[in-house]
Amino acid sequence: MDNPPVKMMDPTLAEMGNHLSDAMKILESGKLESEQGKERRKLSWKDIPGPLEGDGQDVVSILQLVQNLMHGDDDQQGQRRMQYVGEYALLGHSLAAYISVLERERLRKLTTRILSDTTLWLCRLFRYENGSAYYHEDDREGLVKVCRLVINTHYEDYATEGFTMLSSKHPVIYQSAACRPGLGQHLCSQLALPLSCLCIVPCNTMFGSLHQMDVALLDKLIRDDRESGKVPLLLIANAGTPGAGHTDKLSRLKELCVQYNMWLHVEGVNLATLALGQVSSAVTAATKCDSMTLTPGPWLGLPAVPAVTLYRHEDPALSLAAGLTSSQPVEKLRALPLWLSLQYLGHDGILQRIKHASQLSQQLLEHLKTLASIKTSVGELVEDELNSPVVVFRFSQDSAPSSGGSVEGYFAGERDVLDVLNRWLGEQLAQQVPLSGVDVVELEDEGTCVRFSPLMTAAALGTQENDVAALVEKLGEIIPVLSCTLRYRQDFKDEVLQQASLSYIEDLSWPGLGGVRYEPRATDLDEDKRQHSVEKINNDLLKKLMELDTDLYFSGGPEFCEEKNCIFIGMATEDLDVAELVETIVSVGREIEESGKLFENMTEVVRRGIQEAELQLQKANEEKLMEEGVLRQIPLVGPVLNWFSPVQASVKGRTFNLAEGCLDSTEPVYSVKAQMNKEASLDSPKSITKRFPGQKLFRRHGAGSDSVSDTSSVSQLEESFRETAHVQANNADEAEVPEERHVHIVEETALSDQRVPEGQETESVDTLR
């Protein structure tokens, strides 16, 4: 038997494939740009549009420019994301441009085949019998077209009369409160309807999931609208809410829509599970709805493929009027990328990706059940949600251990604090396990939660079972930190309030122990000087605390914090010594305040010291004159008189204390150095709690595994406190002066063999000047 003849491939298509392959290699390699080109790119204004070159550029240069704009200076992220993008996903857009220039009849046949094949495959995959498909870029556009179709169905003369048909009987669109934000407003703006046509249906408050539409309340709202002369038009339900992934009671909602002649539209991530062999009954009910919107791009990891709205309607004329179908063959080419991608993956490949994402969710859910202090949004009353591919969890203090610290009724704003801790938890997990694809979501009842939705992220990121295991491991490391921080937060506040020099900063948006502000003890400053002093002291205090050998994180606070000049302390561990932490903040702040006073008052202190020294020298000269008599002051008589009758006088001097701003006698300095010992005892730093080798600051011994290391835990703190004192003490020993910086003014009152020349008594004062 002869083999059938093989048709030669179109040279244009073969060339297109080669060009696409070359282009992908250029975009992924990142090695075509020379070092000189890189330097030139760094020095050029690449973000400013330039003139269009007259001679044009070759394809390689243009692709190189695209690569630079995509990756910038970080090529690794771009390459990691590009490795999951197959040529089949990009080939569709290139083929669409090529096919669009075919002759009209051939174009019509080709586009009809592409559209019918893709629609048939999708309807069979997702169990939607006898359906039609509309392909669109914006995933909300399909719902807009469906609404226009329903309006044309209920208002027969709408195509000719327009909005005047709606003025007598207002249409009403019902939407669940758990739908994605802005969806209803977008519909009204696109259909030129007032917002009064939109009705938000609350979710359950007593029975069932808190994220499911309240069916009984919906029934009452529809009856009230009908009695007031309005037309119930369309109901938007969820098969996987955007936040928690819960599914509405679609069977009951379909019954209401049939009863009141309404259109039921369903959307949500759980629709992807319709392709699996085993599907929950709640999601299976979506196959009976009037329309549904699918997003196969993120589900299957297909970039730049359109979203699809499947619908059932018997009148093709109304579908054409609503824009769901088009007579233009080029419009049908939107399905071409999806047509190629589905053939590339095949039926088994599609099922494998969806099943893999569902298994990842179940794997994480099973592990979360074993972790203390973690709650999931899956309730016992919602049996179908146990198979949801979306996992939403949250750290909660309800089951947190209570060994130490204050938990019960620890302060007001508990919900806000838990929200900020969970937001920090989600950010840490996303940063440390990026392939997991977790993100932070805000739910109305639960608050801030962490969401794991592998159907939307796993195919693009390449998430595997080991990534989920890493996520659980990291979660187990962070939970104790959150629990300790929650327990010690009130203890930290109580310790701060006991300190007169500290103010507690209540900021519920800070994920940590809290914030403090050091308040100077000076009360004689005006408001501007005091504010400047507070800013300077707290800035220096923050720098000092950040230099300490500790695991605690110190910060200036959140970016948009209303409080200024504050110090915020981050997460706590089990072995944290809160009392020592607060005492250290106070002692370091006081040290900074005292040293600041010394330099700020230096000029005034020195000026007053000079004036006082002059007065005391003048008084000493007068006393000397009265003691020695007038004869001893005569130039010729004085020396002879001193030779016959010497005056016994000891050397007197004064020491000037810059810190206290006063003059003292130097007699103790030259006798027993009592002043040095006194000052040294006063300047000795406050005794610090005894520590074991390697124990870091603010840790209780034996409470943590890191309490012992090779270095002393207090060496750095003692050095920071004693550094200035050691330098001053060394200088004092060399010069035989007190440890503090003093200025000595010595006056000679009498000599045994000669008189002091006139004017020398003020020499020390001039030196001080």
Low-confidence regions: 75-85, 379-385, 399-412, 677-688, 704-769
Total count of strands:
18
Shape: elongated
Largest sheet: 7 strands, mixed
Distance between the termini: 120 Å
- Describe the strand arrangement of the main beta sheet, using strand numbers: 1-7-6-5-4-2-3
Q: Output the radius of gyration.
A: 41 Å
What structural category do the secondary elements indicate?
alpha+beta
Tally of DSSP helical segments: 28
Q: How much helix is in the residues?
A: 40-55%
Mean pLDDT: 76
Quaternary = single chain
Strand content: 5-15%
Protein name: Pyridoxal-dependent decarboxylase domain-containing protein 1
Pfam family, one: PDXDC1-like_cen2
Keywords: Coiled coil, Decarboxylase, Lyase, Pyridoxal phosphate
GO molecular function, one term: pyridoxal phosphate binding
Structure, described:
The strands form 4 sheets. Strands 1-7-6-5-4-2-3 form a 7-stranded mixed sheet, sandwiched between helices. Helix 17 (336-368) packs across helix 19 (454-461) and helix 18 packs antiparallel against helix 20 (465-497). Helix content is 48%, strand content 11%. The model is unreliable at 75-85, 379-385, 399-412, 677-688 and 704-769 (pLDDT under 50). The chain has 28 helices and 18 strands.
Topology of this protein?
Layout: H1 11-29, H2 35-43, H3 59-71, H4 75-82, H5 87-99, H6 104-125, E1 132-136, H7 141-154, H8 158-161, H9 164-168, E2 171-176, H10 183-191, E3 198-201, H11 215-227, E4 231-238, H12 250-259, E5 263-267, H13 281-284, E6 291-294, H14 296-300, E7 307-311, H15 316-322, H16 329-332, H17 336-368, E8 374-376, E9 391-395, H18 414-432, E10 439-443, E11 447-452, H19 454-461, H20 465-497, E12 502-505, E13 514-518, H21 527-546, E14 554-555, E15 567-569, H22 578-600, H23 602-628, H24 637-644, E16 652-657, E17 662-665, H25 667-671, H26 674-683, H27 715-735, E18 742-747, H28 763-768
Parallel strand pairs: 2-3, 2-4, 4-5, 5-6
Antiparallel strand pairs: 1-7, 6-7, 8-9, 9-11, 10-11, 12-13, 13-15, 14-15, 16-17, 16-18
Helix pairs in contact: 1-3, 1-5, 5-17, 6-17, 7-15, 17-19, 17-20, 18-20, 21-22
